[in-house]
Write a structure and sequence with these properties.
about 210 residues, alpha/beta, D-Maltodextrin-Binding Protein, domain 2, five-stranded mixed β-sheet, 11 strands, elongated, binds 1-O-pyrophosphono-5-O-phosphono-alpha-D-ribofuranose, ATP_PRibTrfase_CS, EC 2.4.2.17
Length: about 210
């Protein structure tokens, strides 16, 4: 068996993903969400796990630095990476939404300013509606932008809705359903098909 490299997203969904990995029966010494270590192996070294920033996971997989990635659909959509998406792990469930102040109208003839961590996703959504927008790329605390006049609206992920609520914002338009997905490098899918399929089967059994 050839070794496969698996890129895991750091941050919010890491703990559920690590739990699911452990349920496959593979044991990765020292792998936990707060670890500062970035590379881990299972006991027989058939799987190498690398821990990377969520938005970088699709890039690692597209470029072949990782054979497989486990990451949120939000980051897959934003990265626009050319990879195969083969499994919905049904964890980290949330949605993309346009949010703003209650009663605000999203449709307008005026150019709208949208603050977001996901400018590609926002541009695609508004382009489909024929609405002209300008994006302001932020790296977090996006809900602040409409409150202080940095943007008209935000495009962000909404999970429990509590961040919006606590900042007096509401969902104005629901967008895509998001969850953690398994993605595969296109070349690895051909050259390491047995290893990739074996790993997917292990994960599927763990999910059941
Ligand atoms: C995400 C997202 C929202 C929040 C939504 O931010 O950008 O702010 O979670 O979750 P909720 O609906 O359960 O409140 P994250 O926690 O990743 O922090 P950030 O603002 O630093 O990006």
């Amino acid at each position: 068996m050839e070794q496969i490299t698996l890129a895991l997203a750091k941050g919010r969904p890491a703990s559920s993903t690590i739990k699911l990995l452990e349920e496959t029966g593979e044991h990765f010494s020292e792998l936990h969400e707060d670890s500062r270590k970035l590379v881990f192996y299972n006991e027989d070294k058939t799987i190498k796990v690398i821990f990377v920033k969520a938005l970088d996971v699709p890039t690692y997989v597209e470029k072949g630095a990782a054979d497989i990635g486990i990451v949120g659909k939000d980051n897959i959509l934003e990265s626009q990476a050319d990879v195969y998406e083969l499994l919905d792990l049904k964890i980290g469930k949330c949605m993309f939404a346009v949010a703003g102040k209650p009663g605000q109208k999203v449709d307008s003839n005026q150019k709208l300013t949208i603050a977001t961590k996901y400018p590609n996703v926002a541009k695609k959504h508004f382009k489909k509606k024929g609405q002209d927008i300008e994006t302001v790329k932020l790296n977090g605390s996006v809900e602040l932008a409409p409150l202080i006049g940095l943007s008209d609206f935000i495009v962000d992920i909404v999970e429990t809705g509590s961040t919006l609520k606590e900042n007096g914002l509401v969902v104005l338009e629901e967008m895509d359903y998001i969850s953690t997905r398994l993605i595969v490098n296109k070349a690895s899918f051909a050259t390491k098909s047995a290893e990739v399929q074996n790993f997917i089967n292990q994960l599927k059994s763990a999910m059941e």
